[in-house]
Design brief:
Length: 152
């Protein structure tokens, strides 16, 4: 502050400390993959948080800066989506961030059901795929000489 008049100038200073509000951010080594899926975490929270709480939908919770390696699994026939939430706070406030991890079945299985095996030209057949959930299906159809008639 500066005050002045015809008699002189007086200045005064006071320091203030502004504490930052926590801003939660974290990284995960992968957001999807096949079971068992090991995931590491990187806490990039800004704002000098005093407390951390990790809530992982696999049943684990942690109050450390970063949780240990987590391995996410699913059954042979289901796609499972897990959530990971980080809550951080300090004397100025609280912030939260949630991310999802998608885990696919461990083994890929597939077979094709055909509605008919023979017929006259033009021969039309319905191909019905049965695969592991989450699988990406590509068709290749070969003629008698082994030439590809479809594409991936």
């Amino acid at each position: 502050m500066k005050v002045e008049n015809v008699c002189g100038i007086v200045t005064d200073e006071e320091e203030v400390l502004v504490h930052p509000y926590p801003i939660v951010d974290f990284g995960i080594s992968s957001d999807e993959g096949c079971s068992p899926l090991p995931i590491t975490f990187f806490n990039d929270t800004q704002g000098n948080a005093d407390n951390y709480q990790w809530i992982i939908s696999n049943g684990n919770t942690y109050t450390t800066f970063e949780p240990p390696l987590q391995t996410f699994t699913t059954s042979d026939s289901l796609i499972t989506v897990y959530t990971v939430t980080l809550i951080a706070d300090n004397e100025c406030g609280i912030d939260t961030l949630t991310k999802e991890i998608t885990v696919f079945p461990p083994d890929v299985e597939a077979f094709i059901e055909l509605d008919t095996l023979s017929g006259c030209e033009p021969f039309i057949v319905s191909l019905i795929p049965f695969t592991t959930p989450g699988a990406i299906i590509n068709w290749l159809i070969y003629d008698e000489a082994g030439n590809v008639q479809g594409s991936e």
